């Protein structure tokens, strides 16, 4: 955007930190907070202080997999869950008709409030300095990162550095024929950092993402759309947010559903010659799961309409986000396209949609701690690692921030496994499989998703968060109370018999089941689809202390789905066996003739740490894994090395 | 496999045993040359070019006496079957000479190869891939041309093609389930209801079961149908045995160099490989006219898929006969009324009454083609419902495949049961996924990203 008149600056020593985090988006904010809370003197430097934790795309958080990540962040002591609970305008649980593994909480955010709340938290965090500045290069000596140099010549030294550059990294916005250098939402791009990373030997990829136009709500005819209100039922993301803080539905803001039509599609088709997606202007690879509207029309030509969700961007603005109309068509075409949609006939477009291309560090260059393989003490997170989405970014930021902080303190790293958290799945997918498009978490990426539920994130990760010093003792004790209550009640139900009384049998027969002849354990009875914990209480004594709804939720899920949970745990046990087969660090794949060429190349590039990790690399076939396993087990590797 | 013994030097007789013109003893491994050099007189094999044949003698270093006149092929790694140094000793074909040479090789540093171990090394050393090696093993093991065809068809990928169609069907279902989960607000994908999922599971189960039905035949084609011939002394068991063994129908006899308690012989009966159990026992009891070895018969019957019970056409049914009929009541059985060339004494109706008319065959083992009706009957028993005409269809012959198909079927049962219990689709999906993986293990397909590709090619999604 801005034209550089003079590149001259005189470098000066500006200070020393334990940890420096570059970029204050969703990844950087979490990384910096975690580091500071773990006791490190931390600096968070970002291009524009008015865009801390800004949402340049959709004004919402959560949904399948992503919502679970927010709860995982919360359980590890991250900020995203608390911050959205302070600033949401609508809360909905999705997938309620399906099983517990895939229920997904989603919030519509007031994006401005969200930014302000996060900035305030960061500003008030002891040990943490928030600064505005553009990082031009890293100070690297003997393959070790020692700090950063800014646009203005400031040299900051640090023990570890985390880069969360997002779409600012050599960002380029595209709207029709127009192309210009820019970060997200017309902010300053970071041009030099990418060059510096390339000089250091990193392979960068070019990705693309996009955002739809925003329209003024005053000019939307909502009567032609379908209202989507929030939930009556109380749900929050953070363990810490009390139920009574829930905003009543009448005070929440609604979303509105409308549809494109043949006319819309015709406008798009007529202008495909001006669509950068198809004219070859866009070089970056875009995400399949979040295609632009022009991409949808071309790829799914037989569909005569597509949904469009109109989402409020906040309480103090009239801007509405036209979800599912992401586009980089010329501005005038966007305008026409909008006006063809029911309810938007007279909509005033406030901001056009755009595509943005940016640089990504190909994630095979990362260790499972997110430290780079080439430069020691340097970590990367968020979109820089090839992902898309605020939640994916925040999860990675927290993860990289924790590991950078641990390294700065000379401690062992924290690695989350695929069976422990969606964040673990995300990390392993990135460093093992890499990605050819902006990576989004989906529940189907997790092979143990029944174990990675949004209702049990606290059970999975609070302990770790507490050990790291990110979860307060007070909260930890509350968690332990909940845990104890769940375990006690499960145990009680395992030892309580329900007698085949008339009352019970009347109930059973009313649900079309055969009457009981003998007594039945309460836990077994609870497994019946028509029995809930509350119906159970009609037939057995209540627990000593009345149970909270979150405890009841756990008791029900763990009892009803015990069989499937057990299956998933058996799968985990199998994987662990493979994880136990470590691959020696100095293995020479060229010496194993038996490996297929593609497998050999992939193994050499990614250098997996275990046979299990090797098996997840695409292009490494089961027979290659078998050979690798045999060689390692038989010490043949050692023979080869001679 | 024992991990410590792999990649050492192994040896075995590579030609079918018996009185052939020549026999070959093969050695493979780093020490192959060292071993042969100790017992070979002739050129210095360490100095000859690779892939040459060299004339000389094998001798016993203990006695310094020649054992046999031989031609020794020297093939150095890596361009050999196993990718290791390979030595092949061509010797005169007698069992004694061949065995002595093998024994010498084993005493001077090699280990007796396990069945298929040369092929295993070819796989481990990267010369052939897993599925090829499986097929090679099956071709080696194939007992008749028909089983050869099944293995070849597998090599060509008929089974893989069929399995991949099944997997595609599962993938479509899974993609629908997943898309409903990950994009709950989008109306692009049909909602995968319990009903739809159940219909698919039932359909898939029927297909897997059909494949499993062929597995029984497949296993027989591979391993042979264990068959015992029982009957009291002098009813003509060994004539029937000899008749079956004659006309070049014998395929293999036992492999020397290994010891087995019970000698097995294979015969090819109209494409069905019969593995004759305890042929030694048959000969013994016949030759020595011992009292009937009921215990021995009992053992043979227990380990058989098929029992040929021989009765004498020219004598009345004896108590021993009745005892044997009772013993074999639970077995798949053909009752042979032998010696039809002699006057009838047996009450055929009584026999048919006792064992069922359709299971009775009359033969005269001493006449040519006397066993023809019996052979027809065995073939009919095996290739029921026109399976013999289904040679182009897929037949599952590999034990690993069979067990994976069983797993797949189990998973489908769990899907159906889970749905019937009213469990949500996304839980039941776990079993559907397990089924998909079991089938994938058969073809050796990895599933990396496949599901996601399917998802994105099929549905229009995205917020």
From TrEMBL, chain A:
<comment type="similarity">
    <text>Belongs to the MnmG family.</text>
</comment>
<dbReference type="InterPro" id="IPR002218">
    <property type="entry name" value="MnmG-rel"/>
</dbReference>
<feature type="domain" description="tRNA uridine 5-carboxymethylaminomethyl modification enzyme C-terminal subdomain">
    <location>
        <begin position="559"/>
        <end position="630"/>
    </location>
</feature>
<keyword id="KW-0819">tRNA processing</keyword>
<keyword id="KW-0285">Flavoprotein</keyword>
<dbReference type="Pfam" id="PF01134">
    <property type="entry name" value="GIDA"/>
</dbReference>
<comment type="function">
    <text>NAD-binding protein involved in the addition of a carboxymethylaminomethyl (cmnm) group at the wobble position (U34) of certain tRNAs, forming tRNA-cmnm(5)s(2)U34.</text>
</comment>
<dbReference type="Pfam" id="PF13932">
    <property type="entry name" value="SAM_GIDA_C"/>
</dbReference>
<feature type="binding site">
    <location>
        <begin position="286"/>
        <end position="300"/>
    </location>
    <ligand>
        <name>NAD(+)</name>
    </ligand>
</feature>
<keyword id="KW-0963">Cytoplasm</keyword>
<dbReference type="InterPro" id="IPR026904">
    <property type="entry name" value="MnmG_C"/>
</dbReference>
<dbReference type="InterPro" id="IPR036188">
    <property type="entry name" value="FAD/NAD-bd_sf"/>
</dbReference>
<dbReference type="InterPro" id="IPR047001">
    <property type="entry name" value="MnmG_C_subdom"/>
</dbReference>
<keyword id="KW-0520">NAD</keyword>
<dbReference type="InterPro" id="IPR049312">
    <property type="entry name" value="GIDA_C_N"/>
</dbReference>
<dbReference type="GO" id="GO:0050660">
    <property type="term" value="F:flavin adenine dinucleotide binding"/>
</dbReference>
<keyword id="KW-0274">FAD</keyword>
<dbReference type="GO" id="GO:0005829">
    <property type="term" value="C:cytosol"/>
</dbReference>
<protein>
    <recommendedName>
        <fullName>tRNA uridine 5-carboxymethylaminomethyl modification enzyme MnmG</fullName>
    </recommendedName>
</protein>
<dbReference type="InterPro" id="IPR040131">
    <property type="entry name" value="MnmG_N"/>
</dbReference>
<dbReference type="GO" id="GO:0030488">
    <property type="term" value="P:tRNA methylation"/>
</dbReference>
<dbReference type="InterPro" id="IPR004416">
    <property type="entry name" value="MnmG"/>
</dbReference>
UniProtKB/TrEMBL annotation, chain B:
<feature type="binding site">
    <location>
        <position position="255"/>
    </location>
    <ligand>
        <name>K(+)</name>
    </ligand>
</feature>
<dbReference type="Pfam" id="PF12631">
    <property type="entry name" value="MnmE_helical"/>
</dbReference>
<feature type="binding site">
    <location>
        <position position="26"/>
    </location>
    <ligand>
        <name>(6S)-5-formyl-5,6,7,8-tetrahydrofolate</name>
    </ligand>
</feature>
<dbReference type="InterPro" id="IPR027417">
    <property type="entry name" value="P-loop_NTPase"/>
</dbReference>
<dbReference type="InterPro" id="IPR004520">
    <property type="entry name" value="GTPase_MnmE"/>
</dbReference>
<keyword id="KW-0342">GTP-binding</keyword>
<feature type="binding site">
    <location>
        <position position="238"/>
    </location>
    <ligand>
        <name>Mg(2+)</name>
    </ligand>
</feature>
<dbReference type="InterPro" id="IPR005225">
    <property type="entry name" value="Small_GTP-bd"/>
</dbReference>
<dbReference type="GO" id="GO:0005525">
    <property type="term" value="F:GTP binding"/>
</dbReference>
<comment type="function">
    <text>Exhibits a very high intrinsic GTPase hydrolysis rate. Involved in the addition of a carboxymethylaminomethyl (cmnm) group at the wobble position (U34) of certain tRNAs, forming tRNA-cmnm(5)s(2)U34.</text>
</comment>
<dbReference type="Pfam" id="PF01926">
    <property type="entry name" value="MMR_HSR1"/>
</dbReference>
<dbReference type="GO" id="GO:0042802">
    <property type="term" value="F:identical protein binding"/>
</dbReference>
<feature type="binding site">
    <location>
        <begin position="253"/>
        <end position="259"/>
    </location>
    <ligand>
        <name>GTP</name>
    </ligand>
</feature>
<dbReference type="InterPro" id="IPR027266">
    <property type="entry name" value="TrmE/GcvT-like"/>
</dbReference>
<feature type="binding site">
    <location>
        <begin position="278"/>
        <end position="281"/>
    </location>
    <ligand>
        <name>GTP</name>
    </ligand>
</feature>
<protein>
    <recommendedName>
        <fullName>tRNA modification GTPase MnmE</fullName>
        <ecNumber>3.6.-.-</ecNumber>
    </recommendedName>
</protein>
<dbReference type="GO" id="GO:0005829">
    <property type="term" value="C:cytosol"/>
</dbReference>
<keyword id="KW-0460">Magnesium</keyword>
<feature type="binding site">
    <location>
        <position position="463"/>
    </location>
    <ligand>
        <name>(6S)-5-formyl-5,6,7,8-tetrahydrofolate</name>
    </ligand>
</feature>
<keyword id="KW-0963">Cytoplasm</keyword>
<dbReference type="GO" id="GO:0046872">
    <property type="term" value="F:metal ion binding"/>
</dbReference>
<dbReference type="GO" id="GO:0030488">
    <property type="term" value="P:tRNA methylation"/>
</dbReference>
